[in-house]
Amino acid sequence: MSDFQLSGIIGADLIRENADLFVKAFEQSEQRSGKPGNRLYLKACLMAVIAKIIELHGQGQYSGAFLSGTLPRRSGRDLDVLQPIFRYIDAHLHESIKMSELAPLAGISEKYFISYFKKAVGITPGQYMYQIKMNRARDYLYQKKYTVQQIAGFLGYPDPFTFSKAFKKYYNVPPSKFD
User: Between residues 128 and 61, which one has the greater pLDDT?
Assistant: First the structure.
């Protein structure tokens, strides 16, 4: 649960407090795979966290905004410079994108580009592209229109195995079992 990707949004104490609940839910989910009520149990655990957030909000302990001091300060100018990068990545997500292609779009030297991007966005360009690909993959899977092989192709993976491995690493579940 320490890897839970809501840092800066939900306080670590709330995550720690509910970690045991999620671990128990996951273990039972693994044992109950395919059994009635499995998804309902996992949703109930998530609802417990949401209820806790609402309770804390009512007590004035949770504002529903980023926790102060958890995210680097970013100026609008930094992100404005990167807008062509974001558009390029979105349009070319199915291709292998090199840093040498991205830096000139922002008018920044290749040497300085990665540190500038990380300072502005909070993650490296490679991590950003990975997150975008995994989010897009998740969206395709929710649509239930495409096969894993098609999604791998849409996102520029050489084969379904490589895509499945990346997806499982990100979401801790293979795409074939994601819903």
Answer: 128
